[in-house]
Design brief:
Helix content is 23%, strand content 24%. It is built from six helices and 14 strands.
Length: 255
């Protein structure tokens, strides 16, 4: 059996965390690999097996906590795990409780992991373009501070995300970002007529830096361009596939 691939950030060395992709999963066919998306049409028993494998690869014995993600800027504090069918509608989680493993699911959107190792506070955020523009990373930092974290100690890592070269948007999309801040123009480059290429990873990194996070690690991994390693919603759409898998990014505190 192929082992689960756990991609780690140097900024979080020694802390249980990782960005996972397709490798090491039990799903087959369209969802082949480590599909953890409860909302996909994959076999639910296989999804649960994939989620179990993900936990064992990062923090064995931990309780996995995920969300019903809605592309919002909402962050929630996790004190105890909840059942899958009672997941809150939000896009970021933070905790200071050992033995919990926070997980966000992506398939082109930006997974961001956070840690204040001195305070013992960690967080995870799902930042699609809508959540990123709305401030989901700011909400995560604020929620961590309520648990005793300090933004001048928080480190952040950005995992596999659709890259600028793969992310075509129309001019209206770009104008929405430029209306929020004219400086956002730098995250777009010219594409075909009426379209531009958007650097979501760089935008999220800039939001983190603007919020006072001094160490932001960008892994520079393109979900769209690496079908053997990552799931991608946009790639599945372009291929006319009827569904797509989701990968998970995890962080926790040892018990």
């Amino acid at each position: 059996m192929e082992p689960v691939e756990v991609i780690c950030a140097q900024a979080m060395a020694g802390l249980p965390h990782g960005f996972l992709g397709r490798r090491g999963g039990a799903s087959t066919g369209l969802y082949a690999g480590l599909n953890v998306g409860l909302g996909s049409e994959d076999d639910q028993a296989v999804i649960q097996e994939n989620r179990r494998r993900a936990v064992e690869a990062v923090l064995p014995g931990a309780a996995l906590v995920t969300l019903h993600q809605i592309h919002s800027a909402k962050a929630v504090v996790v004190e105890t795990p909840w059942p899958d069918d009672a997941r809150p509608h939000a896009d970021a989680l933070v905790t200071d409780r050992p033995g919990l493993l926070l997980g966000v699911l992506t398939a082109d959107c930006t997974p961001v992991l956070f840690a204040d190792m001195e305070a013992g506070v960690v967080g995870a955020a799902h930042a699609g373009w809508k959540g990123a523009l709305g401030g989901v990373t700011d909400s995560t930092i604020a929620a961590m501070e309520k648990l005793g974290a300090s933004r001048n100690r928080i480190v952040a890592a950005i995992g596999p995300v659709i890259a600028r070269s793969s992310y075509e948007v129309d001019d209206g999309f770009a104008q929405r970002f430029e209306a929020a801040d004219p400086a956002n123009e730098r995250f777009f480059s010219p594409g075909r007529a009426g379209h531009q290429q958007f650097d979501l990873e760089a935008y999220v990194a800039a939001r983190l830096a603007a919020a006072g996070i001094s160490r932001v690690e960008m892994l520079g991994l393109d979900t769209y361009a690496d079908p053997k390693r990552f799931f991608s919603f946009r790639r599945a759409t372009h291929r006319g596939e009827p569904g797509y898998g989701r990968q998970i990014s995890l962080i926790g505190l040892p018990g």
